[in-house]
Amino acid sequence: MTLQDHSAISRVMRSDRGIKWFVGLLLAAAVLLPLGHLLFPPESSLHVSTYTLGLVGKYMTYALLAVSIDLIWGYCGILSLGHTAFFALGGYAMGMYLMRQIGTRGVYGDPLLPDFMVFLNWDSLPWYWHGFDMFWFAAVMVVLAPGLLALVFGWFAFQSRVVGVYFSIITQALTFALLLAFFRNEMGFGGNNGLTDFKELLGFDLQASSTRVGLYVTSALALLAGVLVCRWIVASRFGRIIAAIRDSESRTRFIGYRVEHYKLWLFCFSAMLAGIAGALYVPQVGIINPGEFAPINSIEAVVWVAVGGRGTLYGAVVGAILVNYAKSYFTMAWPEAWLYALGVLFVLVTLFLPKGVLGLVQRFKRAES
Amino acid sequence: MRQLLEEVSAKVCRLLMLLSMLFVGVVACQSLHASTQDYESSSDAEEVAIEALAPADENESFNNALSELATASFSKKQTITSELVAKRYPGSRSVLVALLENQLYADKLSGKVLILAEKDGEKVYYDAISGELISDSVLDTKRITTNNSLRKKLRGDIAIFDLNSDDRNVRLAAVQQLREVVDQNVAVMLREQRSIEQDDDVAEEIRVTLAIFDLGSEDPAVRLAAVDELDGELGNDVFNQISALLQSEENREVIKAAEAAIKRIEGKRDFYSLLETAFFGLSFGSVLVLAAIGLAITFGVMGVINMAHGELIMLGAYTTFVMQQLLPNHIGLSIVLSIPAAFLVSGLVGIAIERGIVRFLYGRPLETLLATFGVSLILQQLVRTIFSPLNRSVQTPEMMSGLLRFNEVFAVTYNRLYILIFTFIVFAGLWLILNKTSLGLKVRAVSQNRQMARAMGVRTARVDALTFGLGSGVAGIAGVALSQLTNVGPNLGQAYIIDSFMVVVFGGVGNLWGTLVGGMTLGVATKFLEPHVGAVVAKIIMLVFIILFIQRRKQGLFPQKGRAASGA
Amino acid sequence: MSMLKPLRDFTERDRVFDMVNPALRSPKLDVSHGTVLYLEDISVSFDGFRALNDLTLYIQAGELRCIIGPNGAGKTTMMDVITGKTRPDSGSAFFGQTIDLLRLSEPDIAQAGIGRKFQSPTVFEQHTVFENLELSMAGPRGVWAMLYAKLNAEQRKKIDSVLELTGLQDLRFSLAGSLSHGQKQWLEIGMLLMQEPALLLVDEPVAGMTPQETERTAELLVSLAGERSVVVVEHDMEFVRSIARTVTVLHEGSVLAEGTMDQVQSNPKVVEVYLGEQV
Q1: Any idea of the CA torsion for A306, A310, A314, A318, to the nearest 10 degrees?
Q2: Over 90: is that where the pLDDT of C165 sits?
Q3: Do C175 and A3 touch (CB under 8 A)?
């Protein structure tokens, strides 16, 4: 029964119709919302505020994070409970660039040192802050920093065949360790307060609505590109191999595949994707602090994927947007209840919706036909 | 014959003194160190003492001595106080105490010396000599002032009186006080006291004090003997005195001995600080073990990832809080009752989680992880709704507060000590349940081969629920212990969940001994790292270490054979 | 312990470095002496239980060898050692003249040319039959290559031929998980064929098969021998008799007897092991 379910869903999701729908919707969102912002005056009911743009843009970056989790969890069975570590690292890399762009406009007006370093009486820039005044360098670090961490961590973990919940738990410990480390002022990443008070990105004022539109469109396109690349990967023979690893790791080994290499490659790629999501997230929310490393964030992101339906990529996007929309709604309307709702969501989805919302939709469709 | 008489009279005198001290001693000594809040009761007691002890024939010389006090210079005051000590007038001590505490006044008109006190909330004066209450209205008083060196002398003077107290604690405090002002006269007194001292602690204190005094002797041989005498003492003052001696000492032999003594003291101090770190480590380890041991059952034996484990600990802590609210006057009893109560509360919640959620997800560890994480969120928020998001503090019963002092540099707090012991009791109890009861047998049977166990007639579903309940209940008990160490708040559980998993995985899944050894090892290692790198980095190092360790030895310290170990 | 191993390997140089060892760099099968597999004095123990006890066994190139033995004789453990799943405590295992199996990982061994069929059929249940065969196909196994890999006409033909051989051509787009037990057995044999190994290790191939299927399997295995070497572990004595030229009897982790089926069946030690002390 469950097997049949899976086959049906995976068939539909792999069919061209699904991807066309998805691309169409995302492109429409990428174009229509900014148009609504630019064309209609603020009084109009069709007007899209910069707040809404920022919010949806943020959801897009969350969705990209969810896609990166779905790629390893849904297709390869690797449940990482520390994926926001990569998200946050990408965010920090972008944040460092934005910090360097503040220049003399900071509170202390130091041309070289960010405010928090002046405050801590540091007299020179730490070595790892060099180069972040150049956008290209920061952009490289956005993927390189999470990628390297994933490489080192994954190499150790996969080489010694740490699988299943053990892997999940040590990824959680990883992000927890990073959380503690980034809280320290001595680390040189702004400690508790993180990096904030950004002024401009590539010369564009971050407060200007045109910049917001630009960031929104970039996020939407990044999400689109992310999903398409992931789809390309999972549709290749590589994709079939990682699914084979998910279903029977030792069998895959016995037909000659170096399982560790495949997992490591995928894990690094996924980490880089999460890093890009983080880098797009930071300029839109205007702050990055160690709280992003919190293990609960990672688990929440996993739930987005579970809610949408894992192993589909689209599901991750749907789940991320649905859950975050619900979160925004609850925290405004009824903040007390959000954790209840989230908790119940965890339980209900795992118990009753193992295939997520998309699975439910699919079931209805099948029932009709 | 005459000698005998004198001796007898001296003894009677001393007896009288001792008796008088019996009244004054305890309270006065307390007021000596205590802040002004304690003032009321102590001076009330003094009043009684003064009234009782004013034989008329001595009054005159006492009066003479006192009358000059008001106008004397500070150096003159020192002489006068010395006289008060030497003559041992019955009121001497009260005057000295009052002078020290700025409660001694002189009436400008009569020249009478008065002691200020408070009676029924009003300020009143007593005559320092007769102890009579004097009406406030007719007086024009001026406080008799003191300076630092006088106050220091006064403390010593009062201590001289206290040296004869019947209460060993008072004597002990007096000797400690005298150590700072010891001179030839005091030394003589101390030697005298030492010869008749019954209490070992006091005698020991006097011995050290005299040796410290001898360090300043002119005779190198005496100094050498003093250094030898002090060898092995750990107190700060001994250390400082010998260090100071080294600065000025010229005699080679004494220098050599002093250097050796300093080295030995430092060695001993290092040893005890090592011991202290080890104890802190064991204490932290016991907390880790307590937090993890329930998980060792649910995760280790059953293979269930229960992310709500931390919240079950939290529920135990809140149970303790509620018990204290119910029994506000019996703190100790409420703690004891909390242990079974927390076991029941957390255990029942655990069984509910198992029956309601976990049992549908056996064999799907990742889903179990997510669902139980959801439960943890709900429980946290529930506690916030019921008890407020603020931390609640749970009181510590008297028997668990305070220090167990082994020597001057090594002491352990009772609550940590009890929790360490408690951990071993819980561990032993759990071990017995798993290895000596029929439930334990069934639990092990189910964990090793579920199908076979079912075929043998074990009701596996029931065993699952009970096992999960047992693990959860133990988590609740851990919560009771933790409530004695930290604040009780909604985030209590979160703080321990990652640590708990680390301990179980490090120790070897499915192995209670592994959890014990693993937790203790991690605790001690963390505490030994902390002084060198700080708490946060120590924690990071431990996390990274475990991450690397698991990758090297997936099975942990004590690998377990069977299904639970190879599962996941 | 394991952390020190590289260091020990480095200091105790009774061998050349791995990187200059030609056998490891380009494991090419060398059967110039006519023997494809050498197992010598292999011992394996699990927690005090000796699963293999100084096992010595040689398989000739092109041979079809049947291995029988009661439960716990060490048949599966032997296969685990050959395929790199279990490392022996002592002994040596060589594939051909040059390839030291004990120094290779499971994928290396598979790529060197040893294919294995498991006791209970293990196929990729979420993949179609076609995909299962595609994944097993001999060829490069690198990560980047797989991202761009495409099937060419020749490879398709190969898959089609195996589908035909295993009788699964109509089920090529069915999920492997939906196959019957016997079909899964065939699929796994098909996957083994796709790997084009020089040595096939086949663990209980006919369990759960109908008599007709069993017959076909026998034909298939016999036809494979010659070109490849085949080692079959089987309990079904009828089946063994129908295909075996040489039979090896394992007992308590070492070889008890070796010879033709008739020879081993008349061997008193074998009879004792199988039937108890009735001799």
Answers
A1: -10
A2: no
A3: yes
> Which of B140, B159, B178 is the last residue in one of the domains?
B159
- Same domain, yes or no, for B358 and B498? yes
Looking at residue B347, what is its pLDDT? 94
Neighbours of B535 (CB within 10 A): 13
Comparing alpha-carbon positions, the chain A residue that sits nearest to C195 is A255
ipTM: 0.82
CB contact under 8 A, C47 and B561: yes
In terms of DSSP bridges, do strands C229-233 and C199-203 run parallel, antiparallel, or are they unpaired? parallel
Tell me, yes or no, if A289 comes closer than 8 A to chain B by beta carbon. Answer: no
Q: Is residue B169 part of a domain?
A: no
pLDDT digit string, tens, across residues A74-97: 999 888 988 999 999 999 999 999
Contact A258 C136 (CB under 8 A): no
Q: d(Cα B357, Cα A245) in Å, to the nearest integer?
A: 28
- Domains of chain C plus CATH, in order, are 31-275 (3.40.50.300)
Chain A partners of C178 at a C-beta cutoff of 8 Å?
3-4, 7
Q: What's the gap in Å between the CA of C272 and the closest CA on chain A?
A: 36
Range name among A158-167, B14-23, C205-214 with the lowest pLDDT average: B14-23
Q: Do B550 and A183 touch (CB under 8 A)?
A: no
Identify any residues that bridge with B124 across adjacent strands, giving them in sequence order: B117
Q: What are the residue ranges in chain B where pLDDT is below 70?
A: 1-59, 88, 135-139, 232, 551, 554-568
Q: Do C83 and A254 touch (CB under 8 A)?
A: yes
Give yes or no for a contact between B478 and B319, defined as CB atoms under 8 angstroms apart.
no
| Residue A305 C-alpha, separation from nearest chain B C-alpha, in angstroms | 11
Digit-coded pLDDT (tens) for A262-304: 999 999 999 999 999 999 999 998 889 898 998 888 988 998 9
| Domain, as residue range, for B113 | 2-159
Which residues are CB-contacts of C21 (< 8 A; sequence separation ≥ 6)?
A: C15
Distance CA(C63)–CA(C49), nearest Å, equals: 31
From the CA of B552, how many Å to the nearest CA of chain C? Answer: 8
CB contact under 8 A, A343 and B374: yes
Note whether B288 and B519 are within 8 A (CB).
yes
Alpha carbons B251 and B228: distance in angstroms, whole number: 15
Among candidate residues B159, B184, B210, the one where a domain is terminated = B159
Mutate to test the interface with A, among C83, C147, C179 (most CBs of A within 10 A): C147
Instruction: Answer for the pair A12, A18: CB distance below 8 angstroms, yes or no.
Output: yes
Confidence of residue A223 (pLDDT cuts 50, 70, 90): very high
Contacts for A206-209: CB closer than 8 Å, 24+ residues apart: A206/A98, A206/A283, A206/A286, A209/A37, A209/A50, A209/A53
Q: Residue A136 has what pLDDT? A: 92
**Closest to A168 (Cβ–Cβ): which among B369, B536, B539?**
B369
Asked whether the beta carbons of residue A346 and residue B374 sit closer than 8 angstroms, the reply is yes
d(CA B279, CA B490) in angstroms, rounded, equals 29
Residues of chain B with C-beta less than 8 angstroms from the C-beta of C3:
552
- Inter-chain residue contact B498 with A173, CB threshold 8 Å: yes
pLDDT per residue as tens digits for the range C56-114 = 889 888 888 888 888 778 888 888 899 888 888 888 888 888 888 888 888 888 888 88
**Position B171 in a domain:** no
Per-residue pLDDT at B7? 61
User: Cβ–Cβ of A184/B544 closer than 8 Å?
Assistant: no
Domain count, chain B: 2
Nearest residue of A to residue C113 by CA position?
Answer: A256
Q: What does B14-35 look like in DSSP terms, one character per residue? A: HHHHHHHHHHHHHHHHHHHHS-
Q: Is B387 exposed, middle or buried (0-12, 13-18, 19+ CB in 10 A)?
A: middle
Q: Chain C 42-61, CB below 8 Å of chain B: which residues?
A: 47
